[in-house]
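STRUCTURE:
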C-alpha cells in the first residue's frame, strides 16, 4: 500500500521533531526549525498541529502508546516495575521525556492545550497505574482501603520529578526502588 502525501509529511515532521528534541531540547526547537528539517512548509505544521506543544503531544502518543506499557502479569509488583521499565527504556532510546518538561512549562500559558493534555495524556497515563492498583486489590495483594488514584499520583509524581529536574537517571534501579517503597505502604 502506497503512503499518501499526508502520511509521508507527517512521518518527516515527527522524525524532524524527534531529532531536534535530542539535539537541542524542547525549548530551543521551533516549528520553523521542524518544518525546515522535515522539508515541509511552516503553514502545513500549523494547520495540522496548531502549536509546537500539540505536535510534541502527538509525538509522545506515537512513541509511548499505552499498549506498549500495559501489562497484566498477575503480580502488582511485576506490573508496576514492568510499566516503569518499559517507559524508561523508551525515554532513554528516544529522549521524548525531554519534551514532557517543555509541555509542562506550556500548561500555565496555554489553557486550551492544558485541557487537551489532561484529556489525551494525563487521564490515560494515571489510569494505567490506577488499574494496576485496582487489580492488586482484587487479587488481595494490596490493602482494600487504598486509593488507586493516589497510588498513581505517588508513582507518577516521582517519575515526573526526575523527568523535570533530570538530576538522577530513570533506570531499572529507580523503577525497582520506587515500586519497593510504594508497595511497602500499601501491601496487604
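SEQUENCE:
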Amino acid at each position: 500500500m502506497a503512503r499518501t502525501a499526508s502520511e509521508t509529511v507527517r512521518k518527516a515532521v515527527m522524525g524532524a521533531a524527534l531529532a531536534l528534541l535530542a539535539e537541542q531540547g524542547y525549548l530551543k526547537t521551533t516549528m520553523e526549525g521542524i518544518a525546515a528539517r522535515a522539508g515541509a512548509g511552516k503553514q502545513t505544521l500549523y494547520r495540522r498541529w496548531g502549536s509546537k506543544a500539540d505536535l510534541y503531544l502527538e509525538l509522545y502518543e506515537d512513541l509511548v502508546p499505552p499498549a506498549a506499557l500495559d501489562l497484566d502479569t498477575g503480580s502488582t509488583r511485576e506490573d508496576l516495575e514492568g510499566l516503569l521499565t518499559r517507559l524508561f527504556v523508551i525515554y532513554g532510546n528516544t529522549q521524548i521525556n525531554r519534551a514532557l518538561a517543555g509541555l509542562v512549562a506550556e500548561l500555565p500559558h496555554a489553557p486550551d492545550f492544558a485541557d487537551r493534555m489532561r484529556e489525551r495524556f494525563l487521564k490515560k497515563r494515571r489510569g494505567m497505574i490506577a488499574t494496576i492498583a485496582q487489580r492488586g486489590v482484587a487479587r488481595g495483594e494490596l490493602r482494600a482501603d487504598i486509593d488507586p488514584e493516589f497510588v498513581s499520583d505517588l508513582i507518577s509524581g516521582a517519575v515526573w520529578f526526575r523527568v523535570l529536574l533530570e538530576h538522577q537517571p530513570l533506570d531499572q534501579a529507580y523503577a525497582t526502588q520506587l515500586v519497593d517503597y510504594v508497595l511497602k505502604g500499601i501491601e496487604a
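REMARK: The chain has a mean pLDDT of 93.
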